[in-house]
Structures are given as structure tokens and as C-alpha cells.
Amino acid sequence: MADVLNRTAREIRDEVAGGTLSAVDVCGASLDRMDAVNPALNAFNHIARDRALERAGEIDRQRASGATLGPLAGVPIALKDNMCVKGMRTTASSRILDNFIPPYDATVVARLERAGAVIVAKTNCDEFAMGSSNENSAYGAVKNPWAADRTPGGSSGGSAAAVAARCVPLSLGSDTGGSIRQPGSFCGVVGFKPTYGRVSRYGLLAFASSLDQIGPFGRTAADAALALSVLAGPDGADATTATEPVPDYLAALTGDVKGIRIGVPRAFVSEGVDADVRRTFDEALETLRAAGATLVDVELPHAKYAIPVYYLVATAEASSNLARYDGVKYGYRSPHGKDSLKALYSRTRDEGFGPEVKRRIMLGTYVLSAGYYDAFYLKAQQVRTLLRRDYEKAFQKADVVAMPTSPMPPFKLGEKTDDPLQMYLADVFTVSANLTGAPGISIPCGFAAGRLPIGLQLTGRMFDESTLFRIADAYERLTDWHTQSPVI
Amino acid sequence: MYTAAAGWCLPRLNNSIAAGASAECDNYTAIHVRFGFRTPQSEAQLIVKYEPVIGLEIHAQLRTRTKIFCGCSTAFGAPPNSQVCPTCLGLPGALPVLNRQAVDFAIKAALALGCAVQPESIFARKNYFYPDLPKGYQISQYEKPLALGGAVEVTAAGKTTQIGLTRIHMEEDAGKSLHEGFFDSDRNTYVDYNRSGVPLIEIVSEPDMRSAAEAAEFFTHLREVLVSIGVNDGNMEEGSLRCDANVSVRPAGQAKFGTKAEVKNVNSFRYLQKAIEYEITRQIEVLEEGGRVMQETRLWDSSTGRTHSMRSKEEAHDYRYFPEPDLPPLVVDTARIEAVRATMPELPEARRRRFVAAYALPEYDAGVLTQSSELADYYEQVARDSGNPKAASNWVMGELLRTINDRGMNIADVPLTPAALAGLVALVDKGTISSSIAKDVFGKMFDSGRSADDIVAADGLAQNSDEAALLAIVHDVMGKNADAVTQYRAGKNQTFGFLVGQVMKGSGGKANPKLANELLKRELNR
Ligand SMILES: [Zn+2]
Prior knowledge:
The complex is a heterodimer. Chain A has 15 helices and eleven strands. By secondary structure, chain A is of the alpha/beta class. In chain A, helix 2 runs antiparallel to helix 3, helix 9 packs across helix 11 and helix 9 packs across helix 12. Chain A is globular. Chain B folds into three domains: about 325 residues, no CATH class; about 110 residues, no CATH class; about 60 residues, Arc Repressor Mutant, subunit A (Orthogonal Bundle). Helix content of chain B is about 45%, strand content about 20%. Chains A and B meet through helix 9 and helix 10 of A and strand 1 and helix 2 of B.
């Protein structure tokens, strides 16, 4: 039964719908695989065995009764532990929510389950999605399935590792500054960040509201496209979702890249990039060029400010978004805060939040403070506008912009934990898409020495996810990076 | 109920609050002593020497069925924490969605007060920690509010002044902290989130008022407008209308404003003027003694009739406002403004003037009848249907309002329809029944919903205008009261009233008084 986990989500769905595979069997295989690898990977905060088997059984009964099955019927899926599932513990990998059980479903959860997907687990992540290595989790770091001493990337490390380790064909992450694409790159899987507003954030524990976006991990572009087609579309519960019509993403997978113009910001990607990353990046571009795409030079003069701008905007919003975790209504409450309200707050938050979260709350509080707001927050928003214009200009010449997803292959656990600034710089190529709202994808494009996965990142025009899927799918047809899997 | 065990209950806020309170007590004890030595004359003189400057900030709850960012009910008085959802509880991951009706009500208020509704306004987060603020921030509007400008004309002490409005912005209400009334209130505070997310508008005035009376008049006027256009219920006791006052004083003739104190917690209509008067006097006293007025927030305490310091300028929160990323800018186009304008009822001021002109009512009557648009609507229908506006006014202002007040009812809940009351007015006009009988009929109509005709017919209450029958009663009365007749005929006219009374009594109160008068006079003079 284990080989069923080598199948794509599309294959599983078709076989479940066709009656050649039972959803319960697929689910069981997924659960067993998670149980087997989790001691080594620490990728899951919670494995929902009973609930998952029950849902899978429901899918099988629906099929037996002749009901039409949804587009993800019987497909096991793991969710980053910052999305609310009614009745299922949801922690954002934070001590402050260690005991939190949401009384409601996130919109993505409702949509997945309506499509027949079976939620099997909540995945480990950086606390409140703040981090690039998954080391900021109250439950310990996730290990990279390709190299146990290395990070799977962050913050959606568990979701990426779960797909790479063949536990599930699909998982969901959230991407605020690269938190889907970078772990996708580090774990050798497809990671997709949709356009801001494409997928509802209702039920996603907010980190930075104007940057957060939920997206899928899969082993193929087609699976990611299938998942997004279920997730995408306006939601009455999220006022920031776009009314833009959702195209048929699967129909975009023509396998053809002829005439596609790929913009390359040579100046921006020339510095501080690992040699293996540079080599695989150039090879990937050459592969696409040979298949009929055109490479054009583009400039992103303000991209060098993206990291500082990101850390002003994201921390400002986070400082406000995380104010609700105060020990009053739910979650952790310090037993040492009985003397006064102030003590209740400060002890609860001091004991409940980890160091990186506290650092960002303090940064963000400072950024928004009277006298600093104009110099920091307002200025950051202005640079954000300039960055948006950079991309608009680039998209006049090119259909997508290509960059390495990360300037480096997966680094060692503990390597950057003492130097937050170095850690922040790991996101240099990914944060722009969040600041501008553009969609982005990371696809496996080779390995560094020691079989460490490397990803190619493509960023598209607003709401043009289709072109990203199309190029990624065509690239998969020309290469076999995405078919390789780690040995665990 | 209050879910203490599930984490709604809070440790009692012992140290910090208690420490603050004792300092405040000392403070106002001192003031109290000083006031004890002052004579009324010197107080009046000081008010002349100084000019008060007052601006108001009014929070008005919008009468929407549901909250501003979620679908929960806004009904007052429901069991604690029974009208809540992930959004208004600030649960992780929950998001706000703006209530269109709340926006339309806010636009309506802005139009009624002459404010300019902005084509684009922005919601902003006001960040501060308090248990009744579930998200740790309040969604409000800051740099770009819904409406700007506007003015209200106010007449106090015979002087009419334009009071400018600075802005109107939309925001959500917080929940309610309950520090008393539980068995463990010495240790715990409870929080009820039913009010969390109830839609409010904040109306900010310019510092254009120069006396407490003017401020009270301004507030009265504002309340009247908001209630009459149906966006607010005007109920201060339930907290659906609240008022903070910015008060300062300056030496008469000085252009520069003095340092202001913000007076909060004025939660009853009758206290507004008192609170401001107290604060004016307090500030003058401070200046007279060579002190400096501190910029601070002060709480009004209705039980002592004083304000006391809540927090100084230094302790003021830095609210770290920034644009709310969960809500797109609020765009209001001309079509929407015009659609709201089309629903605007006649404003009380205009209606009052029209009542005086069209129905020849005294100013006073017109004022009473236009207190609320429901009452004014009721009156107008009675006036139209009965064809006697003055009589209609007497009935509505008299019997109707008295009955409503006695029973603590709202005009909307009155079972007696305006048409039925008009029927009663018409019966009196036609002379079918007397005014005194009509009052009894009113009482019977009010609850039963029966028509006046019906009751008069069934109870045989119609006036007796049968000349022969009345004449018989007149003769009977004259026979039984020969002394009075003799006295009258001797020129003692006062006895006439007594004799009329006897005739009315003899008819069981049903005699047509005019006819009874005529017949009696004719027979006496015979
Ligand atoms: Zn609610």
C-alpha cells in the first residue's frame, strides 16, 4: 500500500473516484507513513488519525452510493498548524496556544473538505510563521528529509517536509515573506504562493495581514494547480479577497513555453548567491530557453530595500495581530500573573511567546510608535509602492521574473540561529512578491553537493497564476528533479 | 452565562488600580475643602473673569440589527457572551467584514449634521491592551474619517451660536468588564463580549461652546437629530449614546486656549451640564490659586458630583494607529450618498417649523410633538384624519403621552392607532360626546383597540341633545332647587353654575352642555 503515496493527488483522486482505490486505504497509508517518519522529521504537531479515517470512510461511502466526488476526493492533505480546523488543536507552534482548540473552520478547510480532501495532520512550523528555518517552533525544529542535520526551511517547514517525505501528496502552507517557496526549495518540492487576495485568510492565524497568503505544496505543478483551483476565489468572510475570476489552472498546463518571456534581474541576483544555486539557476533558465522561452533582462532597482521594508511592515502588523494573545480569553495564561492585570499580560506573553516572536513584536511596536511611524512605517509603505512599480515595469518586458528561491541551499540547523540578520537575508529573493502581492512558485531545479535541493522561483503578474503553472509544468516535462525523493 | 472556568474570568485588578484610586481620593478631598469656603457671589464673578471653552466627543451606537464586523445580534440585555462569534471575540484567524447598513447609518448621520461624506475613508487599528478589547486593538478610523466638517445651530440663554463639527468616524465598541456583583468579585473580573463589535460613530465637535448650558443644548440637539433619523435610540442609560467633554478655561479676552482636561464617563443626560460646570469651576479655582491646569483625562463621578483624575498626559496611551490591513478602504460614491439622502426623514427643526406654520400650533406644542419622528408621525396622522390639528395636539400631548409615560411604553408599541384616536377627536368635534366622556372612552380604546364609535354606541355614551328630554330634567332640577332659582332670579348669577351642574348630573353626564345651558337660562329667565 505504501507505493500509493508515490502517486500524485490527481492520480489518487481519479482512482478513488474510479473505485480502484479506497480513500480509507490511502488515508491509512498516509497515517502510517507519518507515524513512521515523524520521530526523525518532527514535521507534525498533530496527527488526526481517527478523524481522518472517519472522513476517508465517508468519501468511500459517497462513492459507493454513486455520488459525484469532489476534485480532491480521498486525497490526504496536511495543514500548517496556523490554520483553524474546528475541534482540532491549532497552536501556530506556540506555547501561548498550546491548548487552543478552534470552534470554527478556516475557509480553506471548508473548501478542501467540500472538495473531498482528507485532513490528516497539522504540521510543525516556525512560531506564528515567523522564521526561515523552522527552528522557532515551541515543539522543536523540523529536520530536512534530505539531510537530517539541515533545516527544511521556514516557516512552513513541516508542510514542505511532509510532501518531500511522501507522507502526503499535498499540504498547505502560508507565505508571508517566502514561507512556502523557500521551504519548497529546501525540500525539493513545488511551493506555490498565490496572488494576495486569491485565497481567503479567514481562519489563518495572522502574522502580517497585508502579506500573508495561503498556498499549496505538491510534488508537481499540476497538483499545486489542482489544489489552488479548490482554494481560490472570493470569500465573504475575508474582505481582502479579490473578486477576480479564477481561471481553469489545469487547462493552462499545455507543456509549451514557446514565446514566454522570462525576465532575469541579473544585477539583483549576482551578489551573495551560492555557487551551486547560481549554476542550477543558469541551467534551469537554459533549459527553458532551449524549449522556446525568451530570456530578457529586467531591473528591480528597489528590490535591495525589500528586506528592510519587509521587516518594518511585517513586524508592525505582527505587533498588533499578536496583541490578542493575552491570557484573557483562550490559550496559555501564566499562573504568575495574579497580582495585577499588567502582570497577567506581561507574564503570560513572556512565558507564552518564544524569543523570535518577542523580538518581532518589540520591533513592530517600535515601528508604529509616535514619532517613529512616519520615518519607519510610512516610509516602508512608500518603498513598497516603488517596488510595485519596479515589477510593473519588469512585467511590461517579461511574462514572469525568475530568481533563485533562496540564495543558498538548505543550511545547517543552528547555523544562523545566533544571527537574526543573516537569517532574515535568507528571504532576500522571496519577500518582494509578498510586498507587491504578486504570485510566486518555487520548483525543484537541481541539487547542491550532498544532494541538497535547490529551487527555481518564478514570480508572475497579479492574478496570473496560470503562466507560473504553465512554465513549471513544462519544466517538469523537461527535467526529472521533481521525481526524486529523499531516503528516509 | 459568564464562563469563568473557560478563561473568561480575570484576576481582580488589585495593585495598580487601587494605588491610583487612593491618590485620586486625596486629590479631590483637597478640592472639596476649598469649595466649602467659597460663596456663590464669588463664583459668579469668577465665571465672568474666565471664559470656558468646550468641545464634545459623542459616541452614538448605530441601530443596526447586527454588529459592525460580524453577523452577531446587537440586541441589548441578552445573557452574557450569548451574542458572540470568532470575529467579535477576537479568536485567532477571525477577520472583520464591514456591515453595509452601519455605513449607511453613519452616512445618514453625517448628512443630517451637514458633514461632507468623504469619497474614501480608511479604517485604522487603535492598539491598546484591555480585557474587554478582545483583539488588543479597536478598529476605528483615524487619519481619514468617514465625514468632515458640518455645523449645528444651538440656542442657549437666548443666544444662537453655530457649533462646528470636526469629523464623524466609524468604529467598533468594546465589551464590558464587570468588576462587581459576583461571589468572587474580590478576586476576579468578568467580561461580557456581547457589546464587542457593536457599531458606533464618534462625532467630534470643534471647541466652539462657551458654557455648560450651550454644551448641553448642543448635545440635546445632536441626540434629537440622531434619534429622529433613526440611526440611534438616544438611550444613555444603556450606553447607546455617550459623551466626553474637552473642557478648558482662559482669561476673558485671551485668544489662546487654556490647557484642557477630558471629562469622561458622563453616562447620563442630566449629568452632562453638571459635570462640565464642575470642571469649569475646578479649573478656575486652580488658576485663581496660582496653579496650573494639567492636561489629563478625568472621570465624572455622579455619586459625588465631581470629576477626578484618571490619567495624566504622560500616562496617555500611544495607540500606535495604523491602517487596518484586514479591511480595504471604504469607498462611498455619490450614488450611495444620494440613496441614503433619499431615506432621510424631515429633520426635527424643519418639522417643528412646519407644524407651527401648517397646523397653527404653539411653539411649545410643536417642540413636544417633534421629540421623535415616530411621535411626530403619529400626531400628523391624527391631525390629518381628524381635521382638527389643535385638538389632535391636545390629545397626543395630553392623554396619549401621559398614558405612555405612566406605562413606560414606546410610541411604536402603542396599540391605539392614530386613525382610531382621530375618530375619537371627531366624535367630540361633532358634539356626539363631551370631552370628559371622551377621556373615559380613550382609556377603553387604548388597550382594546376598539373604535370610539363602537364604545360610545355599546356603552350608550352619546350626548343627550333631545330638547324635550333635557327640558324635563331642567324643570325637575328647578323644582327641587327652588331656593337657588329664587336667588338667581334675585340677581345672584353664581347659582347658575350650580344649577347647570345639577342638570348634567341629572342626565348622567350625557347632556349636551351647550344645549343644557341654553335651556336652563331660558327657563330661569322666563
Ligand atoms: Zn460576532
